[in-house]
Amino acid sequence: MNLDPNNYRAALANTLKQDADAGHPEWLLPIRNEALEKFLKQGFPHNKLENWRYTNLAPMSERSNASVAQPAAVGDVIVPVTDSDSLTLVFVNGMFSSQKSSSTSVPAKGIVSNMAAQLDTDGAEDWLRNSGDSDLAQLNLAMTNDGAVVQIPDNIELAQTIHIIFTNTAEANVFPRVIIRLGRNAKATVIEHHISNAACVSTAVTNISCGEGSRLNYQKLQEEHARSFHVAAQTIKLAKDSHCDIVNIDLGAAIARNDLRILLQGSGAEVGVNGLFLVDGERHADNHLHLEHQAAHTRSRAHYAGVMANKGRGVFNGMIHVLQAAQKTDAALNNKNLLLTQGAEIDTKPELEIYADDVKCAHGSTTGQLDAASLFYLRTRGVPQQVARNMLVQAFAVEVVQQLANESLREYIQNSVEQRLNELVAVIET
Amino acid sequence: MLLEVKDLHASIGGKEILKGLSLTIKAGEVHAIMGPNGSGKSTLAQVLAGREGYEITAGSVSYNGVDLLDLEPEKRAQAGLFLGFQYPVEIPGVNNVYLLKAALNARQKAAGQPEIDAVSFMRLVKEKAALMEMDQSFLSRSVNEGFSGGEKKRNEIFQMAVLEPTLAILDETDSGLDIDALKVVANGVNLQRRDDRSVLLITHYQRLLDYIEPDYVHVLANGKIIHSGDKSLALQLEAEGYDALMAKAAG
Predict the structure, then answer these.
(1) Element (H, E) at B214
(2) pLDDT in tens, A134-177
(3) Coil, helix or strand at residue A193
(4) DSSP A368-421
(5) Interhelix angle for A28-42 vs A5-22, to 10°?
(6) DSSP string of A27-38?
(7) What 8-state DSSP symbol labels residue B69?
(8) CA-to-CA distance for A324 and A354, rounded, in angstroms?
């Protein structure tokens, strides 16, 4: 992979100048330098790495290399549905837009803000250093212009949904970053929403920590432009008795990759993950899920549904990793896939790695086409074939969509999914 | 003449199942087809409803004057044909009411009629559910998902009641039912009997015919109707068994 380090160093120099102009703290400089050098040493992940066997980022690195561009001018901004009750943070081409965001006052010293405005806060350095190990997370750290910070203090329950929107209107490189920290017994719903109408290259990093007894609804929706790249690394740490419900929906991008790492660190921690990916045309969506049970009495449930059509290719790799200390772990992982046309492809690999001896773990994967008996049944009721197919495909995806907590957003996504599935089903040869 | 099956030959995977079956049903008549396992009863139902995979090698089926075999399954349904399945399919994620609405509207559209409005639709569906002694909660559940055998069959007849077919083919609607469920299902069918609605009952046992009284009974064996009569034929079958009749037909 031809990576021109000078391009990146030049871009970083620019970023550092902006930091200085903005009066950002000095500790940022060494962190960024170090991160970039780490990234340059490894470069973009490539197919020879086991974790990247099926996903080739070469086209992304070429585009990224050509223009490690600074944020482009704002064009027509698409802001998806937001309900008037939610706290909305909007980032356009990587930069925070206070104009498009809603007022974000939070009770009791909580923070719901853009990151750049919070760099002087105690602990900000830790938030950033704590970036995850991936090479792309390092690139993000070096280059990120802004992102969202959500910090909910102990015992605070936030009634409003926090809706973080990264919307891209230019063929630029963006480095969105989301930091979510829930205090003890805190409760919040956060939606991370990526949507673009231009072929952007997005390298997104999300770091979440859930304090003892806290509850988080975290939903990531990806609706990037059909020629864009979206590579995301998310790390979620769960303390004792905390509970996190995750929904991960991929509808867009030419190449989408999610690395979702969930660490169940305290006993009694629980996580539920529901994923949906729709790939048609020549799209590619790769979901890597790593569930690490580090403490006893932890519980995880993961369910991913993939729908593939045309030359679309899906990849699912789900790992349940149970450490020796994590006795009485209760884990279940399931991936089911629907291949709508010949030429569509799924590579799925659910895995278990267990070092404790008293656990309950299950994993499985199914891949198939629409059930002929169900299709016939619907048609004998007078439902036209195309409509019947559509009903069955929708039914396949709807389970995941129904997990979305916020009602207006659920409707919005339901519509997006329905529309996409209509398109997918319409191409099935009759 | 509502349905006219002439010398129908059908095979699946190269194996001939129907070997020259003929049957005529007029408007308002109830016919029962009885026969031993493997005689071709279910194949007949599936072929009439349009299931893929069967090859029609000879014969014809005329329904209301049109060539039924030329129509897609949904077109047959829209033309008033209904199949009550022996094994109704569970379809998670598609709810009963949604299916019925899509089905009714497809029929309306085929007939050049406007879509049924939401209020009238719900009224209709609730009225028919009550007729079948079905709990309203069934309506919003996924089609047949987690239903007991009896509930599935009841759901079939409920769908029939909503869709108001011209010809209902009920394939082993009695199988897997206890006597109470059988009475509810049979009563549901009887309430739907009309001068302009015909029913073809396919059954292995005479028991169903105690509750739904047919005008004609046919015996199907080895892919052909070997004997036809009135309802007394069912009693004779019950007393003597299929073998005696088949031997007689062969002899």
Answers:
(1) none
(2) 788 999 999 998 999 999 999 999 988 999 999 998 888 899 99
(3) strand
(4) E---HHHHHHHHHTT--HHHHHHHHHHHHHHHHHTT-SSHHHHHHHHHHHHHHH
(5) 160
(6) THHHHHHHHHHH
(7) G
(8) 8
Distance from CA of A221 to the nearest CA of B (A): 22
Q: Please tell me if residue A73 touches chain B, with a CB cutoff of 8 Å.
A: no
Q: What value of ipTM does the predicted structure carry?
A: 0.96
Contact A192, A218 (CB under 8 A): yes
CA end-to-end span of chain A, whole Å? 42
Please check whether residue A169 is in contact with residue A163, taking contact to mean a CB–CB distance below 8 angstroms.
no
Predicted confidence at residue A72, as pLDDT, reads 52
> Can you tell me the distance from the alpha carbon of A29 to that of B227, in angstroms, rounded to the nearest whole number?
95
Is B51–A378 a contact, with Cβ atoms under 8 angstroms apart? Answer: no
What would the pLDDT profile of A7-26 be if each residue is shown by its tens digit? 888 889 988 998 999 899 99
Each residue's pLDDT tens digit, A311-324: 999 999 999 999 99
Instruction: Report the C-alpha gap between A369 and A280 in whole angstroms.
Output: 15
Class of residue B123 by CB neighbours under 10 A (exposed 0-12, middle 13-18, buried 19+): exposed
| Angle of CA points B125, B99, B164, to nearest 5° | 50
Using a CB-CB distance cutoff of 8 angstroms, which residues of chain A are in contact with residue B74?
379-385, 388
| C-alpha atoms less than 13 angstroms from C-alpha of A401 in its C-beta half-sphere | 25
C-beta separation of A174 from A201 below 8 A: yes
A88/A83 Cα distance (integer angstroms): 9
Sequence-distant (≥ 6) Cβ neighbours of residue A285 within 8 angstroms: A250, A253, A255, A256, A257, A277, A278, A279, A306, A312, A313, A314, A315
Residue in this structure with the two tokens 């027509």, named with its chain if needed: A76
Amino acid at A297: H
**Which residue in A379, A394, A403, A418 has the most chain B C-beta atoms within 10 A of its own C-beta, making it the best mutation to test that interface?**
A379
Residues in A closer than 8 angstroms to B98, CB to CB, are 391
For residue A117, what is the DSSP state? G
The structural domain count of chain B equals 1
The answer to whether A396 contacts B93, with C-beta atoms less than 8 Å apart, is: yes
- In this structure, what DSSP letter does residue B194 have? B
Tokens at residue A276, please? Answer: 């949906």
User: How far separated are the first and last CA of chain B, in Å rounded?
Assistant: 32
Burial B3-34 (b: 16+ CB within 10 A, else e): bbbeebbbbeeeebbbbebebebeeebbbbbb
What is the separation of C-alpha A144 from the centre of its chain, rounded to a whole number of angstroms? 17
SS3 A12: helix
Question: Which residue range forms the structural domain that includes residue B69?
Answer: 3-250
Q: Which residues pair with A208 in a beta bridge?
A: A180, A236
Q: Is the pLDDT of residue A410 over 90?
A: no
Distance of CA A46 to the CA centre of its chain: 20
Domain of B25, CATH number, reads: 3.40.50.300
Q: Which stretches of A23-134 are DSSP H helices?
A: 28-42, 58-66, 124-129
Neighbours of A137 (CB within 10 A): 28
- Phi/psi region, residue B144 (left: phi>0; alpha: psi -120 to 50; beta: rest), is left
Helix, strand, coil tally for chain B in percent (to 5)? 40, 30, 30
